[in-house]
Design brief:
Layout: E1 5-8, H1 13-24, E2 30-33, H2 41-50, H3 55-58, H4 64-68, H5 78-87, E3 96-99, E4 102-105
Parallel strand pairs: 1-2
Antiparallel strand pairs: 1-3, 3-4
Length: 119
């Protein structure tokens, strides 16, 4: 089993680019299509924290659901944003990569190089 995991959305160009960069580095990652197999609360919270981010920072504001749910309100607590991402995984920004060198939200895609083995 690979020691690199990508939370991947095959419809996302950045996610596809990061996956290709991981493979070009000679690593075949564990691919989690998080829209089909969403993380649970503990995994989502831990991954966000490991990346040094907050739920607000990984909330995908470009999604229509973001506006529909009024998630742009700065008064909303971080926990409410986490709950929204759990209920609607499309709101999770992508791709997250978990590797021996750490956890990153790979936007821009080149951030993946910071954490790949041998990098």
């Amino acid at each position: 089993m690979s020691d690199v995991t990508i939370w991947h959305n095959p419809s996302c160009g950045t996610s596809r680019k990061v996956l290709a960069m991981i493979r070009a580095a000679g690593v075949e990652p564990r691919i989690v299509e998080y829209l089909r197999t969403p993380p649970d609360r503990a995994a989502l919270a831990a991954t966000i924290a490991a990346a040094g981010l907050t739920p607000r920072q990984v909330l995908r504001a470009k999604e229509a659901r973001h506006a529909e749910l009024g998630l742009g309100d700065p008064a909303l607590p971080q926990d409410a944003l986490l709950e929204a991402m759990l209920a609607h995984p499309i709101l999770i920004e992508r791709p997250f990569v978990i590797a021996p060198g750490g956890t990153r939200l790979c936007r821009p895609a080149e951030r993946v190089r910071e954490i790949l083995p041998g990098a």
